[in-house]
Structure formats: structure tokens, C-alpha cells
């Protein structure tokens, strides 16, 4: 079905209540804490929590959730030091591993004890990998298991951890990058009583819109990024088409043993949403062709770098659950793939080759060797229509927790239009909009960004 702008009103989500009963949270969880470790002026402690897979079932199986506490050595004895919990982007990405008191982490540590949470299924938290999913006997069992790895349960994990570490009466600040910010809006919906303030970086979730509307904007952003890329490197327009044509006409195998398709080559455009992404792709394509025994062919260096450029196989949650992070009461049905037909230039076989972005497609379950056994599971999740709510629009409309956020005007992943719309729905929300950075701004200039956001939060 082709959707048009005039369909937006019909597609707008309906608000429905989110269950917020505290009985769903086993607040004091079994917990192991490691001995303190000293590292470059910091104190690190590792925490492991045994938490329910399904909070709606008292006798549910448990999973292990890992979090790393970080504090400056000269502040560690201060028991009144405010806590901040960090939610990483993704879905499916582990929290940062600190090694220096630098970057945005160093800025936060000046006034906080920081908890770096590995969201369930990531890092050391009952990690989801092709190997771990192989223990289930059917795709249906895999899919059922993965339904418990969305933002609602990530938030319930965080609340259990807060009650365990801080106690029921002590709040903490929440900070989230990209999808981590999505989780914090769910936190404000389910358990605002646990938060004293919220910092969101890398865009704000579209809490009122369906997934189709989101992808319609991100496709346009991708086309804009392609325009900008080829303006900077006009010579790459011919080269990119040459590579795509070669892939279509020849069976080129990656080191993992699967064929490199032009569709997979397109996905390198994911890099366009980050600072320095244009250069990453330009320098990669520079060494694409070599003179082989039978003439020009794609070099092993190029092929190995293409294979390493994606984390889909080491992070299957990003592929399999990505569209579900938008779903509330409807099936996503590979929405990005359906919307693709509205942008025929993306699949043109002549002229400009268009790199794509954060658009998940069923073909990815064929193009990545480790994902192939998970295709049936992914299809089941794409057709799942009874996803529960992630946001409580009524609760968010009466929000009392101060929220500050930075959104990047040219963000390829989280459209500024929805960040602006959501910020206007919540009271006590300050939105900083800039085009100085791309989506990975805190990785490029973290102290400056977090320094200003912390000042904004203090003044809220």
C-alpha cells in the first residue's frame, strides 16, 4: 500500500493506557557486586542482577542484567553523590566501556556516580546472539523470547536496579543516546517517580506517529545525504555505480562465504548519519578495484572492510527488533521495505547509485550468514500485531520531570520533525536544535554537549 501525506491523520496513533502498577516490579533483585577496581582516576564496580524475563509473570524465568558503576576516586566516598543511569543507542548495543575519565563520561563524572547499563540482550546482559538463539527449538520460541527485549522491560529492569542500589525513595537522573532516549520516554511513561531529570542526545522518539511516517522522512533524509556526499566526492558517483553493476553481474563472495549483493553494498550508507561518515565510504571505495588475473575485480581489502562495516551479525537485535521499537498495537510488516517503493530512485539500475540508511529489510536475513537461521523468527516478529504500548501520552502530557535534549537538524536516523513534535507534547521539556554535529555528536564533542545539557537541566 502506498501512503500519502494526506494519510497522516488516519495513521496517527491512538493513546491508550500503559500499565504502571508497581506490583509489576520486583524492586529488590538478587544482586552481585564486584570489588572496586581502580582505573585512571576512577573507581569501577561491576553489578549483576537476576531479573524476570517477563515482569507480568511472578514465576517467570530470569535473565542476568549487567551494569558498571563508575565514579571518580576522590568522590567515591561521597554517599550523597547523585546517580545517573545511561541508556545506550541501538537497539542491541552494549553500554560504553570506560577507560579514561574523558569525553562525555568525564563530564558526567564531575558531579555524578554513573551507571552504565547493558540493556537486556546486550553486552553482558543475557546477550542475544545467533548462538544464544540457537538454543531454542523453533522460530516461534525464538520470537516469543525476543518479545521481552523492548524498551518497556528495559525500563522495568532499570527500576528494579534503582530500588536495589539506591532504595525506593532515592531518584536518579537518566541519560540516553538515540534509542536510549526512546527508552527514557518509556521510563517517563511507566515510572516517572524514579527520575529526577532526563538528558536525551541524538534525537527524540516520535511518540504520536506510526512507523510508516517515520520512514517516509528518513528516506528523504537519506536522499539528502546522498546529494551531499556526491557534491563532496563527485567522482564517486561513477565509481559507486560501477561497483554495484559489477556485483549484479558477478558472484562476489565475502570472506564469510555469502554473496555480496548490491543491496548490501547500499547499506554502507548507514555511515552517512555520523560525523566523518562520508570519508569512511569514500576511502573504502578508493581501493575497491584491483587488476586481477582476468581483469578488474573487487579487492580482498575492500570486501573484508565491507563485511566488517556492519554489526548486524554480532548485534542481531538491531536487525530483528529494530522496527518493533516503534510498534504499539500493530504489525510493522517490514515497513521500511514497503515505503521503499515511494522512492524509486533508491532502486534505479542506471544513473546515480543511492546508498541507504537505517532501513531494515527481509533481504538482510539472506545477505548475512549468521542471520540466515533467524529469518523465520524475524518474519514472525514482523507480523506480530499485538505489541503492547511503549508510551503513555496522557502521563507524558502531565510530565513533571525536567527533560533536556539535543536534536541534530540534519539527523538521518531520528527526524527533527518528530523531536520537535514530541518536545511540545511534554511539559518541562527543553529542546536544543543544532546542525553543528551529526547523530554521533556525543562521541565527537561529548564534554561540550553534556556540559551544556547539564547546565540546562540544573536551570530547569
Task: Please explain how this structure is put together.
37% of the residues lie in helices and 15% in strands. With 460 residues, it is of the alpha/beta class. The chain has 2 domains: 16-130 and 147-207 and 391-459, 3-Layer(aba) Sandwich (Rossmann fold); 217-383, no CATH class. The strands form 2 sheets. Strands 1, 2, 3, 4, 5, 6, 7, 8, 11 and 12 form a 10-stranded mixed β-sheet that branches. Helix 17 (416-425) links the parallel strand 11 (403-408) and strand 12 (429-434). It starts with 7 loop residues before the first helix and ends with a helix. Residues 1-12 have low confidence and may be disordered.
Question: What's a quick, concise take on this entry?
Answer:
With 460 residues, the protein is α/β, with parallel strands linked by helices. It has helices at 8-11, 103-109, 130-133, 139-146, 151-165, 179-190, 211-232, 235-249, 262-266, 277-286, 300-308, 316-320, 335-339, 364-367, 375-383, 393-397, 416-425, 441-459, and strands spanning 31-33, 37-39, 42-52, 62-72, 83-87, 113-117, 172-177, 195-201, 289-292, 295-298, 403-408, 429-434.
How is the topology of this model organized?
Elements: H1 8-11, E1 31-33, E2 37-39, E3 42-52, E4 62-72, E5 83-87, H2 103-109, E6 113-117, H3 130-133, H4 139-146, H5 151-165, E7 172-177, H6 179-190, E8 195-201, H7 211-232, H8 235-249, H9 262-266, H10 277-286, E9 289-292, E10 295-298, H11 300-308, H12 316-320, H13 335-339, H14 364-367, H15 375-383, H16 393-397, E11 403-408, H17 416-425, E12 429-434, H18 441-459
Parallel strand pairs: 5-6, 5-7, 7-8, 8-11, 11-12
Antiparallel strand pairs: 1-3, 2-3, 3-4, 4-6, 9-10
Helix pairs in contact: 2-18, 4-15, 5-6
